[in-house]
């Protein structure tokens, strides 16, 4: 269970969770009809990881689009990391990648950063 890898599709994000490196990566679209079902193994992996996290955890998002249920789950996941950082179990950094011409995706990351007390780095990229 050290690594969880899920290949992305047009409806599901690509996910790479690496326990030994303390890296979590989400990219692409997240439009599952059953967001809870899709994210269930991811949440289980994160809950397991947070029992003994790496000293530094980097969470990277390079999303193209995500629906409201996915947004709620992303928020819940980030709250889990906020809690363990507050407890001093790991230092957390969120890298929010967005196309340099996509103001909506930049603002979405800004909304998360305003509500989650974890450092965010905003990283524009050219498509």
Provide a short characterization of the protein structure.
The protein has 127 residues and is an alpha/beta fold. It is 37% helix and 34% strand. The chain has one domain (3-125): Transcription Regulator spoIIAA.
What does the model show?
The protein has 127 residues and is α/β, with parallel strands linked by helices. The chain has a single domain, classed as Transcription Regulator spoIIAA (2-Layer Sandwich), CATH 3.30.750. Helices cover 37% and strands 34% of the residues. It contains three helices and six strands. It has a six-stranded mixed β-sheet with strand order 1-2-3-4-5-6, with helices on one face. Helix 1 runs parallel beside helix 2.
List the helices and strands and how they pair.
Blueprint: E1 3-6, E2 14-18, E3 23-30, H1 35-49, E4 56-66, H2 68-86, E5 91-99, H3 103-115, E6 120-125
Parallel strand pairs: 3-4, 4-5, 5-6
Antiparallel strand pairs: 1-2, 2-3
Helix pairs in contact: 1-2
């Amino acid at each position: 269970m050290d690594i969880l890898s899920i290949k992305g599709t047009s409806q599901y994000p690509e996910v790479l969770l690496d326990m030994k490196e303390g890296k979590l990566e989400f990219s692409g679209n997240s439009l599952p009809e059953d967001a809870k079902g899709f994210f269930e193994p991811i949440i289980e992996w994160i809950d397991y990881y947070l029992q003994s996290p790496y000293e530094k955890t980097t969470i990277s998002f390079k999303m193209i689009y995500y629906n409201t249920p996915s947004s709620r789950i992303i928020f819940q996941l980030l709250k889990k990391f906020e809690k363990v950082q507050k407890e001093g179990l790991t230092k957390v950094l969120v890298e929010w990648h967005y196309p340099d011409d996509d103001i909506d995706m930049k603002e979405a990351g800004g909304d998360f950063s305003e509500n989650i007390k974890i450092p965010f780095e905003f990283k524009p990229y050219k498509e």
